[in-house]
Structure formats: structure tokens, C-alpha cells
Amino acid sequence: MDIDSKNKSDNKAKSVEKVNFFANLFSSLFKSSNPEAEKKRKLRNISKALSKSKYHAYYKPSSNEVMPPFAKLLYDIYKVISPAQVFFKSAPNPDLLKRRLIDYSLSEHQVELLEILDEQKIFELARKTPYRQLEKNIEEQLQIFLNEFDGERINKAENLNKAFTLFKDFCEFDYYVLLRKFDSSIQEFQFNGTPHFEKIADNYVMEDIKDFIDVAYAITDETVVWEDLFAMFKETQGKEFVSAGVWRKIVAKVRSIQVSQTFEMMIQLSSQDPNYQTQLKYSYNSLIEPYIEKIQNEVRQALSKVSHQQKEDKTNSICIQIFGTATPNSLSSYVPGFNAVLEKKDLSRLEYTEPLNYLKTFILEHVKREIREYYDVVVIRGQWDATLSAPMSNAYQELIKASDDITKFDEDFSEEGQIGMKIKTLLPKTAHDHGAENIINRVIYDCNETAKDFILSSTQNLIVIGKTLKQLIEDYSLQKPVIVANWRELEKYIETPMKEFSIGIYKKIYLFVQLMQQYIGQ
Questions:
Q1: What confidence score (pLDDT) does residue 24 get?
Q2: Checking CA distances to 413, which of 188, 234, 382, 398 falls within 20 to 30 Å?
Q3: What are phi and psi of 200, to 5 degrees?
Q4: What are the distances in angstroms from CA 459 to CA 199, 224, 373, 507?
Q5: What's the pTM value of the predicted model, to 2 decimals?
């Protein structure tokens, strides 16, 4: 910039500053220093502006009264939207209306996929499809379903939801109650006669007018595509409730009133607050995002139910094969029922009550019986290399020790036991002491780890016994055994034939390991 240009710019800036200075000075000279006088001046100006509005007949400032033409406006709207109001009032479930919006927004392919993703259908497929394959197939179909919600489909659905929400809120406004303030003889949804509206004091209805503004001004949103909404009504309900042409006239009327600020001026004059401005409060929630989350949750919950049911069926089947009952019971305190008081307080829960109970029962009924008998005969009396028998011997001894440890662990959860008493003492304090909650949760966590360790180590020991047992069964079948030299001598100590006895034990160990894998996933 050259010097002349810079001087011109500086002179221009100084000139603007002078103009602003004199304008402010002029304003301060003529502006009233009395706030009350200034307020009255503004209210007079508002009253003059209202008198020039094409909707001036709605309000009489001199007497602070709302006039019959305003009631006539509401009555005309009420008459037109009443079929829609009846429909919304009679709808048994508002969520069902939202679901219709979603269904209308889905593609034909998505509708087909929903049949596959239905919980009942998933359970039907589970009867003839392995769970892993079922889970894979359902997840693939779910992803295809979700992928069809592209940007265009989502935008159209959300715009439809916006139109529906604004339309519904406008139609559900309680026109009848407000109109009865102008004519107490008016009947709900009766439009045969001609109502005789009276003028009424503004303070009697001004809050109602504010509520009406909230729903009325919302429908003037120019981004709303009303045609899609009325097309949806016609397709899903067989009628539009309000004809599209009449609705456009209502929107245009409300927009005209909004632009004129007639309602705002009425409120300003009624409240004697010239600075009052309408704050629009309408809102609507997303339609598709919660629906997508809901579908995902429902599908995965269905798969979880299938998994849980299949796990429960398998567990019951294995328990019956091993124990002769689906509900073997050997523990008295470390049981599922202990969790009831913890869950009421929203505390951590005991996670391994069932498998630890199964483990204790298995040790009592099989380890300390058939396996002990086999151990006493084959390991103690058998003639075989100690380095080969040591793993099985160690595993057996560990299981016997685990049985005693589990018994002690179970006793600790009794009312007189160390853990049971501690939790019983701390539970009442949890209502006002987070420290008590933390202590209980930490105790439960440690107990879960202890129970899990019992299960893992005992299962591993049973696997060791099972593997050795399998080698011994194969060795027994050889014409010239290479592991145990005196099989024939050992047979006299067992009533059941050795091979049959060994295979029976092996099968029970195999089944029990499968049972534990249901809980520890090894």
C-alpha cells in the first residue's frame, strides 16, 4: 500500500469514529434515564406494531384480552387435525408408530433379512445348525442388513421421523381444553354447530399460547419434507388424516403469523416484558441409530440364548451320563443361592459355583472310588517304570488334596465361616459405605480366582490321568505289554474285567473334562 492510499484509509477510519461518537452522543441525549419510562415507551411501540399486523384482531392491548378470532384460528386447526389426534390418542403403543416409520424406510431385502434375524427363526436354525456355523451365518446376515443403511436411506428415514414427530406434536396439542376457555359449551371432536367464542383475560391463556407456539412454530421448519410423511400415511394407514393441501395451508398460516411476530407481541404486552423473545424448545430423537443398536442387541441376545441353552443342554446331558442326575450336589455354602444377596446390592457374584460343585461331586463319586481302586491296583501293585507312573500318581494325589481344600473353601462360606461372616458383616454397610462394597467385591474376586484355580488344576490333573489311562488301555491290549508287566496278575484284584473297567473310567474322565471346558474354555 502506497503512502497516499494509507493516508486515505486512516482519514476514512477517523471519519467513521467521529460519526459513531456523535451517533452515540445523540442517542444518550434523547434516551430516557428512567427504565420504567423506557419500558412503557417500548410497550407502546409494540402495541402500535401489533395494531398494524394483519392478525391484530387476536389481541386487544387496551384491555389485555385475547379475542375470539384467535380462538377461531385454533378451532379451524382443531377441526382439520382432529382425525389425526384421535388416531394418536388411540394408538396403544407409541413405539409401534416409530416401528412403522422404520418398516416403511427399509428396503425389500432388509425386510426379508429381518425374518432370518428373528429370534424364533434363530432358534429354529439352531436345531439343525452347529452353533459356530449358526453364529457365523447370522452375523453375516446382520452385517448385510446394516450395510443397506447407507447415507441416503438414513437421511430419508431421519427426515421422515422429523416430519412425523413435528406433525404428531402439533396434532396432539390440547386444542379442546384451550378452546373451552373461550366457549365452555364446546364438545370434544364435535364440529356440527357454530361455537360462540368470548374474549377472555390474557393471563388466563397466555401460558397455553406459549405451549402452542412451541408446537406450531416447529412445523415451519423449511427442511421438513412433508410429502414423504403423507405418502407414508397413505401407504400404511390407507389415508392421510389431513390432506397434504390443507396441511400446506396450515403451515403457511403459522409461518405468516410467526413472521409477523403477533404471538410474541401478545406475550410481551400481556407480561409487560418488551424484551420477551420466543425460545423454541422442540426436539426429536434419532430414529435409525437406536434401531440399529436395538437390532444388534436383539440378534446377539438371541445367539446368546441359543448358546446358553445349548450349553445347559450339554451340561445336563453330561451330568446325567456321569452322575445319573442333572443336578449333582456336594457343596453346602458355595452354591448359586449365595449370589442372591450380592445381586440385590449390585455387587460382584460368585462365578464358579456350579462347576466347583460338579468337581467336588466327581472327586467324591469317581476319583475316590473307581479311580482310587484303579490306582491302588495298577499304580501301587503294577510292575512298571516309576518315571512313567509318577505323573499319574502325582495327579491323583493332587486331586485328593484338592477335595479337602474345596471342602474347607466351602465351609468358609457358611454363616460361621471366615468369608461368610465377613460378607454378612459388611453387607448392611454397603448402603452408605463404598469402602464396604469394595472390600466385598475384592473378597469375591479372590474367591472366584481360587475356585477357578481349583477347576483348572484339577481338570489338568484329570487330563494327565486320562492320557496315562489311555496308554495303559492300549498297553493292556498288547500280547506283550511294554508298560505294565503283570497285567494278568492285577486282574484278580478287580471284579470288573480290567479293560472294561479302564475304559469306563476313561470315558467318565473324558466327559468330565468336556463338562469343565463349558466353564473354563480350555
A1: 52
A2: 398
A3: -140, 160
A4: 87, 65, 20, 14
A5: 0.69
